[in-house]
Amino acid sequence: MSIRHPLRALTAATALLLAAACSSNAGGSSASGGFAPPKISAQKSLGAGEGTVNIVAWAGYVEYGQDSKTVDWVTPFTQQTGCKVNLKVAGTSDEMVALMKTGQYDTVSASGDATLRLIAGGDVAPVNTALVPNYADIYPGLKNQPWNSVNGVPYGIPHGRGANLLMYNTDKVTPAPTSWGSVFAADSPYAGHVTAYDSPIYIADAALYLMRTEPDLGIKNPYALTKPQLDAAVALLKVQKKQIGSYWSDYTKEQAAFDSGDDLIGTTWEVIQQAVAGDGKVKTQAILPTEGSTGWSDTWMISAHAQHPDCAYQWMNYIVSPAVNAQVAEYFGEAPANSKACGQITDNPNFCTDYHATDESWWKNVYYWTTPTAQCADGSGRGDCTTYAQWVTAWNEIKS
């Protein structure tokens, strides 16, 4: 399994540069309370294709047999369209934003902690969904959401989704936890064996816990935090840091830490828990705690400066087609975005059940990553929220 690479820390100055487009000075505010993105028109029609497409993607999303000869959905795409794929694998959302700013890439598989930065920075264009026939079959709950649209205008094609769950070693962690309080407790009996995701967006996990347990803070959305609310989340994470054995952003790092017994409890993805179960060294469970969880919904976006827009559109339509979306979801370990993909799963007949692909009621308790902006990601129009740059500064403070 190939998956996201280790997170590379950013300096505060770099983070400020990357997030500047989402600051309170970027674009003003719109009538609906969100920011006003640069005026960029969506493509009107498609041509035959330019013969190539340059893609930035997470590892595991664009496979051409490089890791396994049996895992290849790029070759059929080129054969069908004549568009040769040039791939750049990115390890973090920040790297994706930086690469898209160069104007050298046509499309990107962006997560919600990058999408609004790309939109506000004028790096991606609105998407004409009429040019993507397979968009019609995307689950309605993934369309026109705060992380992939602005004021009702779609800026991408949903690809897949996953939740950040609580995993624990069932032999060592008793009683079985039901709450995120088990990883935020100052007197945790598992001190030194707690793990957490290594990214500024993890601040939202603490905010979600506080939203459920300390209502007086007034948190309504874990990505829309005022300065006092951010400070409360940071304070909680500083307490947690004393209990942390390791932070992770690399799939294999957490898997190995649970296999060895170094980690006993912490945030995870479903695919990691299943990989640990497959290793057979320890017994684990992964749960959606009573407070709910954060999660991610990745989106294919097109560059505002795409040199090969026709091939980019053909790629977006192809990669979310039922059969290919099923292949990617099963290989990567996520719920597919296309509602017809579950009928195309080949290896595991229980895959879509395991990943809750069709259970919309389960996803109602998942808050997908959304870039924090001064205009507030909850759509309230308050305009008093902290930005992603402030979150990066806060995360560096927590980790220092």
Instruction: Kindly provide the radius of gyration, computed on alpha-carbon positions and rounded to a whole number of angstroms.
Output: 20 Å
Query: Mind describing the biggest β-sheet?
Result: 8 strands, mixed
Tally of separate domains: 2
CATH-level-4 superfamily name of the largest domain? Periplasmic binding protein-like II
| Helix/strand/pairing category | alpha/beta
Oligomeric status: single chain
Helix content: 25-40%
Low-confidence stretches: 1-33
Beta-strand percentage range: 15-25%
Q: How many individual helices?
A: 14
Structure description:
- The protein is of the alpha/beta class.
- The chain has two domains: 52-160 and 296-364, D-Maltodextrin-Binding Protein, domain 2, CATH 3.40.190.10; 165-268 and 371-399, D-Maltodextrin-Binding Protein, domain 2 (3-Layer(aba) Sandwich).
- Helices cover 32% and strands 17% of the residues.
- It has 14 helices and 15 strands.
- The strands form three sheets. Strands 1, 2, 3, 4, 7, 13, 14 and 15 form an eight-stranded mixed sheet that branches. Strands 10-9-11-8-12 form a five-stranded mixed sheet, covered by helices on one side.
- The protein is globular and about 60 Å long.
- Residues 1-33 have low confidence and may be disordered.
